[in-house]
Amino acid sequence: MPALAFDADLLRRYDRPGPRYTSYPTAPQFHADFGEDALRRAIHDSNGDPIPRRLSIYVHVPFCLSPCFYCGCNRVITRDKTRADAYLTHLCREIAAIAPLFDRDREVIQLHFGGGTPNFLSPTQLRCMVDVLKRHFRFSDAADRDISIEVDPRTVLPQDMAELAAAGFNRASLGVQDFDPAVQEAVNRIQGVEQTRAVVEACRTHGFRSVNIDLIYGLPNQTIDGFRRTLETVIAMRPDRLAVYSYAHLPDMFKAQRQLDASLLPDAETKLALLQLAIETLTAAGYVYIGMDHFALPDDELAQAQERGGLHRNFMGYTTHADSDLIGLGVSAISHLGDSYSQNPRDLPSWQIALDEGRLPVFRGMFLSEDDQLRADLIQRLMCQGEIPVSALERRYGIEFGVYFADALARLEPLAEDGLVVIGDERIDVTARGRLLLRNIAMCFDRYLPAPQAPATDVGGQEHRPRFSKAI
User: How far is the CA of 293 from the CAs of 10, 151, 216, 218, 241, in angstroms?
Assistant: First the structure.
């Protein structure tokens, strides 16, 4: 991968809305015609590979004790810890229903608890859920097996990390966003440096293989000096990985964001300067830019996977397990099995009712066409390795690249003229100038993005137009 180049003028011109490409096709293309029978067929077909594909499992825990006003996640705000009991009961039903559909020779190489706030569950409850999953699935004993969890440093104790380590967890991701008190007050997330550092140190003490910290730029009251202090404080904790996300203000889509005072949001120039500050500060501290907001230390498995061409991108972000199918469990969770995507209901009652009635809780999804699979392969390689392997795709899919993608290449030509990519006969390479604009490059190959406006689709009986965050 080429070194990263920051060109402010270029970024201003290309700062337009577009998908983040955690999947292709993206979720707005999922449809309600894909139901339980289709999911069973997808699982059956995915079992048929001559070499059994390994499994990754994502478990969604939706509960949070209080709302963070920037949040766009699927979550339920409650201080009633007893609500976890009913949720776990239904989660166990979902596991018991779906696990027997997978061949027993398919090993689980990755398990991730996301949310919401997964540590809304007690360490005992989390250990119980890991044990339930291990009873129903065959977990790999490989050294690179991941069992990871997102934790809120405000509500997890250092001794909790010891219990989680004993349950098999070996990776943790901590939400920080910003340590500046004025920013924290604006977004309703008051979090101390010391309590965060104590959790990071507990992870180290108890053998966690990797610690990730999440930051966000573009929040209300954020300033260059304040964010610099946050970056320096976080770097001193030396997490193995960092995710530095752009805040996307979409209050029409995310109700919690309506609580923010939009007049306090940094202007476009300040937001761009915040991104530049993050990139320069983190790379100076020895972190490698992986792509799409993610940084890692050079000896971290994420950076190493990118070096050897084994990096993968899915709904959990960047991962090292490229050769696995994804099973999503819990409300709103998304699965990627073979040539299909499927999603559970996004509201808690619908998910619970499906399980109470003995049904697999799927409310929409899609099977990928041959064209979808080709473009998904192309975009995956672009997002992870910064290249489009023209010759390899021609051999794999029996196409003549220049003919098949004539329209896409015409859309790509202005980006090549701006120095974002170099178009060759064997492959298309992203340049140092183009690494921050991977989404824009991928959009050239997305056949579901007709200009100037995406078509309306029916989701849950309502007209819906895809809405995407801006690239920067």
Answer: 18, 19, 10, 13, 11
